[in-house]
Amino acid sequence: MLKDKVAMVTGAAQGIGYAISEEFAIQGANVVLTDYNPSVVDTAKDLNEKYDGEITGMVLNVMKTDSIVDSLNKIVDTYGKLDYAVNNAGGGVLKPFAELTDDDFDKTINLDLRGTFLCMREEIKIFLKQGYGSIVNAGALGSVYNPGGMGAYNAAKNGIMGMTQAAAVDYAENNIRVNCVAPGLTKTPLNDGGFLEKILPTVPMKRYETAAEVAKVYVFVASEATFMTGQTILSDGGVSVGLK
Predict the structure, then answer these.
(1) Which residues contact 131 (CB under 8 A, 6 or more apart)?
(2) What angle do CA 45, 110, 22 make, to 5 degrees?
């Protein structure tokens, strides 16, 4: 159980971020759900009624340093610490490489890669002050495997894996762990529209991953894998090791 621990999750208004937040809450942690969508405040209120820890929502734009700093300061002022930070916010334009526009590429890189960098940088500053902390970044199959049609998204997610490794090495001696979880074919509101159905036949387990399933991986890596750092953990139903 994670009673009295404090976790922050970005991109938590829905989908995997929401599921990660709920899994932290199930295990008794105090959880701060953050998202650029103001609906995250009401979403957190609903969760708070179900679980013992304090569950709150906060508007945060991962592409703006001031927003990140302000949110982190509020969390530390409220709880006196931050134990776990999950950088889940992201998205991407999925097109064949030569069809990507400049805007498609910039939007994907800025949200996924730059947004994760900005959050990591400020979280690490907090963790250095308090002497410990655990970061889990959101990778994807595109971090290590290329199903096609994901040029900008793969670039961003591969970059997140690289940043995870770099920060892990830089701060291992400071009792700061930095890891990455790469979900597989997970059904969420952001990837409806037929894409999943096209990829499903390539999954050896022949089913989608649920958000609740991968949320357990995120929380385990954040809180229990205490000698793990710099790793990208795939939870993908076998896609990366064998297509069928």
Answers:
(1) 174, 175
(2) 25
Task: Look at the alpha carbons of 15, 16, 20, 21 in this order and tell me if their dihedral is positive or negative.
Answer: negative
Per-residue pLDDT of 200-238, as tens digits, reads 777 777 777 899 999 999 999 999 999 999 999 998 877
Query: Three-class SS string for 141-179?
Result: HHHCCCCCCCHHHHHHHHHHHHHHHHHHHHHHHHCEEEE
Please state the pTM of the whole predicted model: 0.94
CA 210 to chain centre: 15
Lowest mean pLDDT, pick from 4-18, 27-41, 101-115, 201-215: 201-215
Q: Write the burial class of residue 19 (CB in 10 Å: 0-12 exposed, 13-18 middle, 19+ buried).
A: buried
CA–CA distance, 215 with 188 (Å, rounded to integer)? 12
Query: Is 18 known to be catalytic?
Result: no
CB 90 within 8 A of CB 115: yes
Q: Domain 6-235 carries which CATH code? A: 3.40.50.720
Look at the block and give the residue holding tokens 């400020």: 122
Catalytic one of 18, 36, 84, 153: 153
